[in-house]
Amino acid sequence: MFGRVKPLDAILATAEKKSLHRSLGAFQLTMLGIGAVIGTGIFVLTAEAAQKAGPGMMLSFVIAGFVCAVAALCYAEMAAMVPVSGSAYTYSYAVMGELIAWMVGWALILEYAVAAGAVSVGWSGYVVGLIEHTFHMDIPNMLTRGPFDGGMVNLPAMLIASLVTWLLVIGTKESATVNAILVAIKVSALTLFIVLSVPVMKMDGFSPFAPLGFSGISAAAASIFFAYVGFDAVSTAAEETKNPQRNMPIGLIGSLAICTVFYMLVAAGVIGTVGAQPVYGPAGQVLAPGSTALSQQCAALAASGHEAVTCSKEALAWTLREIGWPQIGNLLGLAAGLALPSVILMMMFGQTRIFFVMSRDGLLPAVFSKVHPTYKTPHVITILTGVFVALFSAFFPVGILADISNSGTLFAFAAVSIAVMVLRKTDADRHRPFRTPAITITAPIAILGCVYLFWSLGLETKLMFVGWAAVGLVVYFAYSRSRSHVGLGHVEVHEEDEDVPPQPVPPI
């Protein structure tokens, strides 16, 4: 099970032989990180967190952010030491063997492709709300919501997923430049929200702080974890980074720190101005986010003139309208509409690069690692990923997609944290440009934190993850295992040694 380990030297040689163009610096990486992290989580899932935890979602942000911080420290060491595409998949291959690496790569499909679909749905909600408020018109739900959400198909979400796919095919550098502009718009909008809402906060909004107890806070943390997903997508860009040994840790930890500060201030602004208490049913029962019962209760509240932030598809824009800034609220909706595509871009960017490196290892068909002759991007897998993201976003609501994405992410984070500890023992002499501080404490905390958040997810989400893992095992043993380059005894070599026959792998 753990026998097929790909040596780190071979991983680095593979990347050197068939590499992507290095064009990203520390500033671009930090912008990419912020672009990947700040998005649907804070713009859209704020309402879902309020329904699960009330004002206690402040603590949920702290819990999720802390787990991400310790995982980021582990990621930073691995990303700087092994500056190649593939993220958690590559690191696991080097440490825990091919089967574990395959399962991590398979789980990352949930993280990136499903998350990109979730963000596309979030973008659709803000843009549709903006158009309806600006032009005083009503767009039919049948065309802007999936079947789970009271509609038929989410056409705006499909449109934005297709547009981002085209942008990624054109090239990473162009994508990163556009992304930097969108990040600036997004951060400006959130800053404006903080400036307008925080000074008029009332402490009454924070009481009761945890109306549904700590279990509600844990459930909200498991969902809101999605608000932090994306920082590890920066590590998948390692192979396209200039001086990765220096720039990767800066991009990872810098972007996470900036985003955490924003989240705490934005959440405080919502709670302190319009309140964030959960909406209960007619008999006082707790209503699940995204449920038909909650939608009906929200409609009843709206009819009586007592709307709640938990009912809004555009929580931040709605909050500004409620506190007397309707035009600024519309502007924030516009900013979200312009900026959320940067998150979709980064998620799909990470997905395609993981497929690229898995294909390069023989675990997926070779056509997946084909690079476009003009744009120098893995265009085949980019287009294929784009099709699936468009389908996810067309038919599923944001809450379901976010929770499914979280299950795959938490599995991958735990795997990297284990890999860092193992590698300290098995390859202690390797040069580490960045060393995780207090590794014997940091890594176990990261692992336990991932397990805790996974356990706090809903039962349906956990069962779906198990089912997805089972399908992955079938694919691995039916196709990938017999075609693996490591399994066939091939070790990739440096470009200047291409004419040398593949060398056999020594037995482990």
From TrEMBL:
Keyword Membrane: yes
TM stretches of this protein: 26-47, 59-82, 88-105, 112-131, 151-169, 181-200, 212-231, 252-274, 328-350, 380-402, 408-424, 436-455, 461-479
Keywords, sorted A to Z: Membrane, Transmembrane, Transmembrane helix, Transport
One Pfam family here: AA_permease_2
Cellular localization per UniProt: Membrane
Keyword rRNA-binding carried by entry: no
Main location: membrane
Domain of life: Bacteria
Protein topology in the membrane: Multi-pass membrane protein
Protein name from the UniProt record: Amino acid permease
Organism: Novosphingobium album (ex Hu et al. 2023)
